[in-house]
Amino acid sequence: MAAPEIITFGCRLNAFESEIVGRAAREAGLADAVIVNTCAVTAEAERQARQAIRRARREHPGARIIVTVCAATLAPETYAAMPEVDWVLDNAAKLRAESYAAVAPRPDPLPLAGAGAGRHRPEAGEGKEATRVRAYLQVQQGCDHRCTFCIIPYARGPSCSVPPAEIVAQARGLVEAGVREIVLTGVDLTAYGADLADAPSLGTLARRLLAAVPELARLRLSSLDPSEIDDALWSLLAEEPRLMPHLHLSLQAGDDLILKRMKRRHSRAQAIAVARRARALRPDIAIGADLIAGFPTEDETGFRRSLDLVEDCGIAFLHVFPYSPRPGTPAVRMPAVAPEIVRERAARLRAAGAAALDRDLASRIGTTGDVLVEKPGAGRAGFYAAVDCPQDVGGIRTMRFAGVAGGRLVGVPR
Ligand code: SF4
């Protein structure tokens, strides 16, 4: 194996950071190695990581196997106890080349590198490319909240932001490399800037970025906490066509009592108000959302409020998460919903999400919009819908949306 092989589980942040992890390992001269970036968000993600570790050992008997990221930060002993594993690095240690320089054949007992989830800034390295023309740019790391279902703050530490000047420099580099759309990401993106000297908000950052990089055609935001959207971001949404008409909201539930038990900071009414305000400012906007099915104590009435939220907020892109108990979080001590009911509710929510997407796409037929062609025959509208387009078009093209097929719009260049 010439360069380290990297296996990544979990969120976009993990995908983004796998670039940095790979670069740090290469800088340290590590070659014959497999690095497994684990995720702690669900028990299933951890099971898959353990399976991947065993498979990696079978397929690469002589390689160093290094396990890192969230699950390895939260339960390093679990991974150190696996005979296949040579080294365990926590979330802070994984970004430093010297952590890999130390990796040797497995000593006994295995030391655990790093000191837990302290505050650490995201690396201002290159953005992970989603495609050749669209890239993620991580601007914030960690989270100061303690939602009762979520293990992330324990693994990622407190919120920590990249200063705007570094983000602008990074964005310029991406644009020079041919990127047309940048997606700003973070663990708690709307908390951006609170830890910096002059506390720039996410909206302030986005405005500054668009002004400083006029060649950047499109800016998109990843998941937003509805209780944290700042005034500068609202103004930008109203005024700036380069900010894409697409908001993904971290809603999680539609029932106020469940939201309280989750320790979320918004109410059902506030979620609906945010969606309405966004639609009033940008009538072509598409709203995305995360919802959890079967949170402890959720009864049928409470669940129906989540189900109704799909329509009440006009959600087009719904991500459904069946509740998964994470040891160490307060929610595991709350009365659980039976697993078969959790599955059934997740299926009902997914069906509602699929129907809502169909409705949203159908409402776009006959309209026109700019499509960023990401690869031959496939692109994305500003409002995030996937668009099938002719093989021989590229760049950003104005298209008429002529129909819907398989959850995608059919685009005809104008
Ligand atoms: S805001 Fe809540 S759900 Fe999001 S990372 Fe922080 S604790 Fe987890």
Describe the structure.
With 414 residues, this protein is an alpha/beta fold. 35% of the residues lie in helices and 23% in strands. It contains 13 helices and 19 strands. The chain has a five-stranded parallel β-sheet with strand order 1-2-3-4-5, with helices on both faces. It has a five-stranded mixed beta barrel with strand order 15-16-17-19-18. The chain is globular, with a radius of gyration of 22 Å. The N and C termini lie far apart (48 Å). The mean pLDDT is 90.
Radius of gyration: 22 Å
Molecular shape: globular
Widest sheet, order of strands: 1-2-3-4-5
**What's the story with the biggest beta sheet?**
5 strands, parallel
What is the percent of helical residues? 25-40%
Mean pLDDT: 90
The ligands bound in this entry are: iron/sulfur cluster
First-last Cα distance: 48 Å
